[in-house]
């Protein structure tokens, strides 16, 4: 029988901690992603790897451990009972590694590292930009890289550290999800706004008359539908009016006299002060709450010093 060489793998020895079995980390990372994402291709996209590489990692991990981690049903993968227990512990371990790494970077020698924050454009331009400038003045060790975008960041894939956007009460999506944590940053009152000339023409109208007015929408009519319903009007069918896709474009169109937009003080405070827009005040109407601006981050980064400092600062500003 040949003698083992110095390079041959040693069998685990429970009496010797040096021989504790640890699978290759790349395989563990692939396994965690597949279990989290529910499939090879989604996990590969999240890890920025070829799906064949991820598939090979899973196969090698199962061979290394000598157990099946997934049930295979055609092209679908489903964790086995043992795989589910293993995934829960591996997910926690990887999250702890990430948490420990970010804590170390936030507290030692990397204080100038930027936080990546994605936010809906209107809220970013009209309110958040000023708050971040004040935050960085008070916290020179923390910098914030702000990206205005209508696309929510894939926080689990680490596209950003924080995502802020408006979530309606009556239409999807909802904030948060598996591996994420959120807090309501602001719950604004929503008003109808128009330029002074159009607002004057509508001053004596009724809420139902708004259905005949040019109403300006973002990506759908759900905001106007909810606002009208809370003001006693139940529209039937789709509400007419152009889609502007972005809140700041709808507000710009209202400023030019193209119609009536829905907005909050966060978006139109400057316009109201300058008189370029006014609230459309009709008998029987009122400002209403339709949803929440949510501050969302990964659960494992919730207590990161930089994220905690920014979250507390923005909550205080929004409440003030």
UniProtKB/TrEMBL annotation:
Superkingdom per UniProt: Bacteria
Keyword annotations: DNA-binding, Transcription, Transcription regulation
HTH lysR-type domain location: 23-80
Keyword Transcription: yes
Pfam short name (any one): HTH_1
Ribosomal protein listed as a keyword: no
Coiled coil: none
Region (Disordered): 1-21
Similarity comment text for this entry: Belongs to the LysR transcriptional regulatory family.
PANTHER family on file: HTH-TYPE TRANSCRIPTIONAL REGULATOR (PTHR30537), HTH-TYPE TRANSCRIPTIONAL REGULATOR TRPI (PTHR30537:SF74)
Name of protein: LysR family transcriptional regulator
